[in-house]
Amino acid sequence: MFKFAPYLLKTLWRHRTRTLLTVSGSAVALFVFCFVLTVQQGLEQLTKQDDSVLVVFQANKFCPATSHLPQDYDRIIGEMQGVRDVVPIQVFTNNCRASLDVVVFYGTLADKIRQVRDFTLVGGSWSAFEGHQDAAIVGQTLASRRGIQVGDKFSVGDVTVAVAGIFTSENRAEEDYVYCHLDFLQRTRGLDLVGTVTQQEVWLDESADPEQVAAAIDAKLKSGQIETDTRTKGAFQASSLADLIHLIDLSHYLGWACLFLMAVLLGTTTIMTVEDRIGEHAVLQTLGFSTLRVFRLVMSETVLLSVIGGCVGIAMAALVLSQAGISVGAEAVTIAFEPSWNMVVTAAVTSVVIGLIAGIAPAAHAARADIVTALRFSG
Amino acid sequence: MSLIHVDRVSKQFRKGSETITPLSEAELQIDRGEFVSLMGASGTGKSTLLNLIAGIDKPTGGRIVVDGTDITQLSRTKLAAWRARNIGYIFQTHNLIPVLTAYENIELPLLLLPMNRSERQRRVEIAMTAVDLVDRANHYPRQLSGGQEQRVGIARAIVTDPTVVVADEPTGDLDTETSSQILDLLQRLNTELGTTLLMVTHDSDAAAIAGRQLRLDHGQLVEQGERVSVAVHPEAS
């Protein structure tokens, strides 16, 4: 089939305006599809996190601003069977509602951060962070979005921190957060939360059953000062983002609609091309091209258009998603929209499949045309 | 034994409520190396007969044997493969592929045969030399005159060294002088290369260059050359 590549490419170039428009349409459709795919994958990554981490929250509270657990619960939980480590966290956010620019402060014990997070500093130093009470390390995505640099003062509401470092993480959602000292955030003017935290993050032993430990924690603290609600981190984040998840679930219809439109566009363009060249295909068949070969030629044209458009759309989506650092958050939990190889491969395969589907009818039309009748349209 | 044997071939098709029968139990034999012209007024079925022999149309009845192969029994796919090897088709309107150069147009039928690039190149060069178009190899059809386009069409028809070359009004779109050049070229292909040629034309001067001339006249196929081995039985529709 590669022997016919020059014919194929020259044919597409001959109708370059039509080709360009079709490729552009396909590119836009795949661009949107990639966005939807990335949102879905971001959500999936967030809600299907490692089950070995639990989040203890105040029972019947759903917003970080209203959850207040005694900080010393970390000691009680830490003594329970199956628990490896407990990290008390005070959360402060500029916006509990769904937003594209959520800033979340996580106040925790400085010596715990490096134990439970896979952060890599790309600017600043750990010593600068650990040595100053008002110091904070900022995720790279947030830093890029807000233009934050090491040494800057960064304020949200009554909280003002000195940026001691900028970090990256394998978990892209973490790069939307600011980590600062726990007691600094507890003492911030207007909060006055000394002795309480928003949540306790519980790291389990490998052999521990998360559901059993979660139930045990809630049972043990049921009679305590504050009743708790303990879930795996993925389930907790899914619960926090419940409203957004419903919306994101609906977005897959948008993805399907884009693919349908792309198939219609490709099919329409190809059928127009086939109608224009019905005589040319008859000439090819007179020369000895079989029905199958003509079918494959037309299919190849459609798939090529689809793949070129798809590649452009995928490249644009990857560029925008990687550069813009878009994320959406609610209740101090964010979903990061990060391009991935999974997205690239899925979208590329999808563009091939769409090209194949769109090409079937026009290709069959071209291949099955009566040669003698079609030759009347040639010349 | 004849190279082409048209054995009681009929062709019918419907046009609205009317049944048209351009050929009814036609018989024709053409020997290897012959140059046969087929004349007749428009609509007498001469192109239909040509298309049947070229294997791009199927008869309603009878059989056509070319070089020992009954092509009426071949499937559409096998017929395509048979055409690629055995038929060179020269069109009235040249029908070159507009996006391909002269060289690529001539090479196109060779791409269907099991042949490497150097062999294809050798054959294309021979065909281009035969039609005296070597200096136009990289020209696109739109950059060629009508006569040059037709010569490319002829080169494309002969490049596979087919069993038979059929030409449907090959000078129909050309001026007198260019027509004369094309007819000379066809005659040379027949005499120098021994190519078997069947040419449909409505021009008696063009038909005269063939070694054997047939005429379809009011449904009757009349032999104007030496042999009388042709019969047509027109059937009222």
Topology (SSEs and partners):
The complex is a heterodimer of chains A (379) and B (237).
Chain A: H1 5-14, H2 16-47, E1 53-58, E2 69-70, H3 73-78, E3 83-93, E4 104-108, H4 110-116, E5 120-124, H5 126-130, E6 135-139, H6 140-146, E7 153-156, E8 159-168, E9 177-181, H7 182-187, E10 196-197, E11 199-204, H8 210-221, E12 228-232, H9 233-240, H10 242-276, H11 278-287, H12 291-324, E13 327-330, E14 333-336, H13 341-368, H14 371-375
Parallel strand pairs in A: 4-9, 6-8
Antiparallel strand pairs in A: 1-11, 1-12, 2-10, 3-4, 3-11, 5-8, 6-9, 7-8, 13-14
Chain B: E1 4-15, E2 18-30, E3 35-40, H1 46-54, E4 61-66, E5 69-70, H2 76-86, E6 87-90, H3 102-107, H4 117-130, H5 146-158, E7 164-168, H6 176-193, E8 197-201, H7 204-208, E9 212-217, E10 220-223
Parallel strand pairs in B: 3-8, 3-9, 6-7, 7-8
Antiparallel strand pairs in B: 1-2, 1-4, 4-5, 9-10
Helix pairs in contact in B: 4-5, 5-6
Terminal Cα span of chain A:
26 Å
Query: What oligomeric assembly is this protein in?
Result: heterodimer
Distance from N terminus to C terminus of chain B (CA atoms, Å) equals: 34 Å
Task: Show unreliable segments of chain B.
Answer: 226-237
Radius of gyration of chain A: 28 Å
Largest pleated sheet of chain A: 10 strands, mixed
- Taking pLDDT < 50 over at least 5 consecutive residues as the criterion, the unreliable ranges of chain A are none
Number of helices of chain B: 7
Radius of gyration of chain B over all CA atoms, rounded: 18 Å
Give the averaged pLDDT of chain A, no decimals. Answer: 88
Q: Please, what is the average pLDDT of chain B?
A: 88
Structural class of chain A: alpha+beta
CATH architecture of chain B: 3-Layer(aba) Sandwich
Shape of chain A: elongated
Structural class of chain B: alpha/beta
Secondary-structure element pattern of chain A, one letter each: HHEEHEEHEHEHEEEHEEHEHHHHEEHH
- Largest protein interface? A-B, 26 and 28 residues
Give helix % range of chain B. 25-40%
